[in-house]
Amino acid sequence: MNLRDLDYICAVADHKxxxxxxxxxxxxxxxxxxxxxxxxxxxxVTLFERSHKGIRVTDIGEEIILIAREAREAxxxxxxxxxxxxxxxxxxxxxxxxxxIAPYLIPLFVGKLQSAMPNMSIxxxxxxxxxxxxxxxxxxxxxxxxxxxxxxxxxxxxxxYSEPFWLIFPNDHELRSLQHASIHDVKADDILLxxxxxxxxxxxxxxxxxxxxxxxxxxxxTSLETLINLVAxxxxxxxxxxLAMRGGWSHEMGLTSRKLADxxxxxxxxxxxxxxxxxxxxxxxxxxxxxxxxxxxxTAA
Length: 301
Prior knowledge:
This protein is an alpha+beta fold. Helix content is 41%, strand content 21%. It folds into two domains: 3-80, Winged helix-like DNA-binding domain superfamily/Winged helix DNA-binding domain (Arc Repressor Mutant, subunit A, Orthogonal Bundle), CATH 1.10.10.10; 92-301, D-Maltodextrin-Binding Protein, domain 2.
C-alpha cells in the first residue's frame, strides 16, 4: 500500500465513477482500476460495489476511506512542515473563493503576489461555499475566502474585511427619488436573488422583509453578473456587495445605486483554513497582503 493507492480510492469515493476518478488522478482507467483491485486483495475486503447502476462505497470502504483521507492530510502536513522550515512563504497554496468575491477581490492583490511572495504559487478555485468547506475539510484545499464564519470545529478563520450592500436599479425606477435607501423601500416581489446554494442569496434574504411568494422566482440567476444584467433590462432590483461596485459600470449600464442604510446590511469576509494546517505564516501573510490592497469602500478587520 502506498499514498498513491489512497489517492485512487478517495478519488473513486468522490466521483463515484472510475473514469472520472482516473482523469482526476492523471492516470488511465485500467491503471486505477487494477491498482484498486490489488489493494482490495491485499486488504481482503471489498471497498466498492460495482454494478451497471454505478459505484457504491461499501460500509468497510467508508471506514477505510475516512482513514485514507486522514493519512493523505498527514502526508501533506509532513511535506508542508518540511517546506516551511526552508521558507514559510514558499511552495504551492490552493485558495478557494466564492463567486461573489473572486472576480472583484483577486485583481486587488494578485499583482502583488510575485513581489510579496516570490517563491509561492497560488492555485485559485472558484466555487460555492458548501463545496469549498467540504474541500477544506477533506484537505483538497488549503484556504478559502468565504462570507460566512467557520461552522466546523476543525476550521478557523482570519476576518479580512466587512463590506456594505448596495441597492441597484434602473435609472427610471421610482427608487431614484430617494437620497437614502432602505430595504423597506423595496417591493418584495421586485428583488432579484441568486439561486439557492449561494451564501450571498441567504445574506440578502436575511436583511429583506419576511419573504412572500415572489413573481420572479422563475428568473434563476447563477451569477452576480447575470443579476446585474437582468436589472439593467428592467426586470427588478438587486443587492450588490461593495467591491463589485468598483469601476463605474453602473452608470454605463443605465443603473442607479444607493448604499443601504439598514443596520446589518453588510457582510464579513473570512480567510478560512484548518486549525491543523501547518503553514500558518503563509496564511497570515496572504491575509495581510489582501487587507493592504483593499479600497476605502470596505473596512479592513
